[in-house]
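Task: sequence design from structure.
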């Protein structure tokens, strides 16, 4: 997605009703883009390796 979408979304206040509508539209765009990806791209796409880390204690 383009940066303009995120900048506009971040500038909106949390009480704004359009914020949730924009969020839903953004998620739909992401899901449609994933659906349109080719099968081979899905297979060979590298996945991020996430290692669990210990929680930091706040004293």
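Answer:
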């Amino acid at each position: 997605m383009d940066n303009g979408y995120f900048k506009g979304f971040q500038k909106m206040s949390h009480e704004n009703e359009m914020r949730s509508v924009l969020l839903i539209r953004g998620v739909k765009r992401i899901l449609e883009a994933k659906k349109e990806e080719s099968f081979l791209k899905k297979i060979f796409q590298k996945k991020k390796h996430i290692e669990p880390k210990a929680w930091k204690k706040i004293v």
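Residues 3-46 form one domain.
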